[in-house]
Write a structure and sequence with these properties.
17% of the residues lie in helices and 37% in strands. With 180 residues, the chain is an alpha+beta fold. The longest helix is centred in the C-terminal third of the chain and has 17 residues. The N and C termini lie far apart (40 Å).
Length: 180
């Protein structure tokens, strides 16, 4: 797997291969070019949907982590807030519409997202929302199935990402402190 910055072999402006990788910055060393590209973390948002003491997780269809359990959500588009992205993703993946005040902030967690031979870093924002009724539809191109699970009993090796584990741990702490 290639680090995000290492995926750049040539300058995005002049095509030179004379590049310097300096942390998240990639700089062209051609004096007349001056191109700089930053590979900062991507933003993602997801929602832990609670139903009768359980959390609704999705079984992933696609890589990375196909077949593993994840939390409904995805990447934040330019111009979106994390809340807007979370709502959009719930609509796209599950056809769920939540009231404006339904999302409660839970936590953030760093994540690593390997895709097409490149390792991307993201900061995932997690929200919690009550789910009065279970969804009857899901996007089969992204989701193989839905699983309603006690968050304390999800096997670690069945989870898609480290950030998923962190979000479930934060949820368990939140439930212990405040209840479902």
């Amino acid at each position: 797997m290639t680090a995000t910055a290492d995926a750049f072999q040539t300058c995005g402006r002049c095509g030179s291969s004379d590049l310097t990788h300096d942390g998240p910055a990639i700089r062209c060393n051609v004096d007349t070019c001056g191109w700089t590209f930053f590979t900062n973390v991507a933003a993602a948002a997801a929602v832990l949907l609670l139903h009768q003491g359980h959390v609704l997780l999705v079984r992933r269809t696609r890589e990375p982590s196909a077949g593993k359990l994840g939390i409904p959500g995805g990447f934040v588009d330019p111009g979106e807030t994390a809340e807007q992205a979370a709502r959009r993703e719930l609509h796209e993946e599950l056809r769920l519409e939540l009231p404006d005040n339904a999302l409660r902030f839970l936590c953030t967690a760093p994540n690593i997202y390997p895709y097409a031979g490149v390792t991307y870093h993201s900061l995932d924002t997690y929200f919690v929302a009550d789910l009065p009724t279970l969804p009857t539809w899901f996007d089969a191109s992204e989701i193989a199935g839905l699983e309603l699970i006690n968050p304390a009993t999800v096997p670690d090796d069945d989870l898609a990402f480290d950030a998923t584990r962190a979000a479930l741990a934060a949820l368990i702490q939140d439930v212990e402190a405040h209840g479902f």
